[in-house]
Amino acid sequence: xxxxxxxxxxxxxxxxxxxxxxxxxxxxxxxxxxxxxxxxxxxxxxxxxxxxxxxxxxxxxxxxxxxxxxxxxxxxxxxxxxxxxxxxxxxxxxxxxxxxxxxxxxxxxxxxxxxxxxxxxxxxxxxxxxxxxxxxxxxxxxxxxxxxxxxxxxxxxx
Length: 158
Description:
Number of strands: 6
Shape: globular
Strand content: 5-15%
CATH superfamily of the largest domain: Winged helix-like DNA-binding domain superfamily/Winged helix DNA-binding domain
CATH architecture of the largest domain: Orthogonal Bundle
Helix content: 25-40%
């Protein structure tokens, strides 16, 4: 069973989804249908995983938290999970290119595949896909929109 709640944030109303094992997804207000495939959810803001996620994401936006300490339970292929683990290793306030992520997981020619896995990251903000930029330093696609990506990067550089 999956549970959900919503929370207001500086980048819009986020929908958080959890199982009993951990946080499954953080979804954007205008998230593309099917970007993150989920089973049916039940509204349950008091679920302990969701309550913890709301608290920690709130602390992040308040500038009181730089890393998350939540049980995570994303669903994805082995390659996607490797990319998401590399995203989670990007330090707060820093960025990496798709090529750097590809090299860090031992797949130096897989920049495009890294981009595809990055786009499917179900745990936006918590697993910081917003910290991945183009090799020229430009902002590239982001499920929450480029304005949200810029907001998150600026927030982290303060």
